[in-house]
Design goal:
With 569 residues, the protein is an alpha/beta fold. It contains 24 helices and 19 strands.
Length: 569
Amino acid sequence: MVGAIIGDLAAWTWEHDKNAFFKKLITPEAAPSPYREEMLLTANLLMRQRDMSYKEYSCHFKNRNPTATVLRAIAIGWLYETELETRSAYQNYCLYDDKEDWYAGAFMSLLIFALRHGASKKEAATVKHIAPFKDMIGDWKDKDSILGTLMRAWEAFRSSFDFGSALHNAMLLPGDCHVNAIFVGALADAMYGCDRYFVKNKYGEGCALNSYKYVSEEIRQLHRRQRTFFPKNCAATNIEKHQWHEAFNPYKDKVVTPELRRRILKAFQPCFDYRFGFYLDDGFVYVYRSGWVLQRFNLVNQGDGTYRITNLQSAECISKSNNPISEALYAVEFRWDLVNEDKNDSESSHKASNRQAFFGISRHRIGIDGNGVTTLVTFMECPFKCKYCLNERCHKPIFKEDGTTPNEGIMLLTPQELYDKVKIDNIYFQATEGGICFGGGEPLLHSDFIKEFRDICGSKWKITVETALACSWADINLLASIVDHWIVDIKDMNSSIKSEYTGMSESSLVSLNHLKGNGITQNVTVKVPHIPEYNTDKDVAKSIEQIKGLGFKDIVECQYIKFNGNNKK
């Protein structure tokens, strides 16, 4: 709907200043046409009362013409949650004059609905109103009628590659350029979004698109809320042509739950701490960072409610060994409460309560997890996919299919609830200078939980973390003054070996340097494993030499033993 308004303003700019149109798409002086009011009136009325009576609704509209019917359909396509509701609302509120108007408006509402729910162009073209939309294009696209106008708008959109290029195509269509631009802008917005206008490098810089002075805050919120994915023209990227090559896919067997798929598609604006994001474009999920498109892949439904990451490809700007998808997945899977901007998101609300998932509490451990008597507490979730993972349970789904009931053996605990479970050994902790060891999984993913737990248990218990440092620097910073002892499994200092073994391109050197930068060297035990089939004795020796050079003194060699698919130390 907002894209339709931008299309209207772009048509004004095209008519008055073509040079400005190609540079900025719309100018500050651009004025909307009367067409805008038809859409906004429909949206404003039905936002306030979705089931308004026909009599009450129809008395607000004086225009009963084919174009007005399609304009109302654009608003209806954005307003309703299901296809059935959309069809019903169109029947009630389209106010058509003849059968052709009825067809055109129905198709527009269904196309908008499909596209804003992530359908590809090919999928959207299969929407059906008596007959499939795609079957009618050839017969109508050359006719001087409202259906002909819609079919030509669809073709202009179909041949585009982003919001700006769609409106460029719209200006080449015959007929009223405002109607053409509104129709094309509506379709393009539903797929690409319309926050930014991109141009190719040789033509200059793009810009943000500001049409919001022509729409209410309520419309703006609706526009954000009703979109089910992060679109291309909202991403800080580019529209250059890319050459794609097959990439190593460490996630080909990863079970993508419906909730994780929702997060990948919904995505977020990358920031300093979480630099890589996702956007959806015509069936592909793209991985990007500021100014660069890096990878793309498909999410394929397995027929059992889960999905798989397939057809992972990398752009020409990165090497085949790099996998930025790992960092983007880490953010949506383990940092959703931090990166997600929707404060009403149910999962964010769950995270905000700081109740985390655990798969084990092991008491009375001596000499294994730090000094004294300790209780090992193991978190779920880890971004690494180590080939000989000792605790594969941490990668299993936390919840059953209902999304709220934990699977068998999973405990959902707040810091206070965990304290109440482990305080039974308080006397042992204080007598032996022991305490709690947080493991997993990757415990540093839950740094805020550990900090809150420290506030509850006080300073008389020692807190140890057994970690691979598969976390953000912010997590290390937060725990620098809280953790008494760090047990760090670095896998290997060679980033290529580590990436092959863990499936993530993380640098142990960078991570250890960040520990050192926080003054953490004396209270650290660094484990350097011999990993069958991945590193050699020379690799281990070289890793130890590098670690000593950083100032770490407590270095322990250990042996991973490949046994029945599990890692034993």
